[in-house]
Design brief:
heterodimer, A: mainly beta, 7-stranded mixed beta sheet, B: mainly beta, 6-stranded mixed beta sheet, 4-stranded antiparallel beta sheet, globular
């Protein structure tokens, strides 16, 4: 019943620090995504992956990195955190060849001070 | 590239009244369309989706949406809202295959008045 699990749920970083947001899914989905949500701006795609070992940039990739060593896990790495990265981050997954339906985690709220 | 416009940032509706949230999309081919709901502090939950066929689709929690190709619209409706419907609603479009995910509108914040 887990679906998509994100950790941590909340985190405060200082400018210049680094951290990794974890995302894991137990639905055997090939496709995984990282979005960020800012007030009044909807969700913007950061990175996505169509399978283990394959990742690609989305609309707003600068300042982030990802890896996909297994089908289940898709961590998002923030290097040299900046205040502009203060946001709520959502991980999502979907079935390869499906018509785009995504399943979302509960989000990770990150504040950079 | 596809895009989604939700013209209303906030909508206030009295409990028990009907609701319509507007969504317009821009996409060259037949779109795959979705409505998601986000309760405070939660992730996004799928309300309904349109892929093909009947242009009126039913979703969870008593919601429905109608696809109108001529108007490039996919408006969400509910005949009678409940206080628990207060949330953020997102319309989204996919190009199919899920390769590059969904393109979301900016959302409509629904407020329910008692």
């Amino acid at each position: 019943n887990a679906g998509v699990t994100q950790t941590p749920k909340f985190r405060i970083l200082k400018i210049g620090q680094s951290m990794t947001l974890q995302c894991t899914q137990d639905m055997n989905h090939n496709y995984m995504y990282w979005y960020r949500q800012d007030p009044g701006m909807g969700l913007k795609l950061i990175y996505y992956s169509v399978g283990a070992g394959i990742t690609d940039k989305g609309e707003v990739p600068n300042g982030y990195n990802v890896s996909r060593s297994t089908t289940e896990d898709f961590p998002l790495r923030l290097e040299l955190a900046a205040p502009s990265q203060t946001s709520v981050y959502f991980c999502a997954s979907g079935v390869a060849g499906d018509t785009g339906e995504l399943f979302f985690g509960e989000g990770s709220r990150l504040t950079v001070l | 590239a596809q895009s989604v416009t939700q013209p209303d940032i906030h909508i206030t509706v009295s409990e028990g009244a009907s609701l319509e949230l507007r969504c317009n999309y821009s996409y060259g081919a037949t779109p795959y369309l979705f409505w998601y709901v986000q309760s405070p502090g939660q992730g996004l939950q799928l309300l309904l989706k349109y892929f093909s066929g009947d242009t009126l689709v039913q979703g969870i929690k008593g919601f429905e949406a109608e696809f109108k190709r001529s108007q490039s619209s996919f408006n969400l409706r509910k005949p009678s809202v409940h206080w628990s419907d207060a949330a953020e609603y997102f319309c989204a479009v996919a190009s199919g295959g899920g390769a590059d995910g969904l393109t979301f509108g900016k959302g409509t914040h629904l407020i329910i008045q008692p």
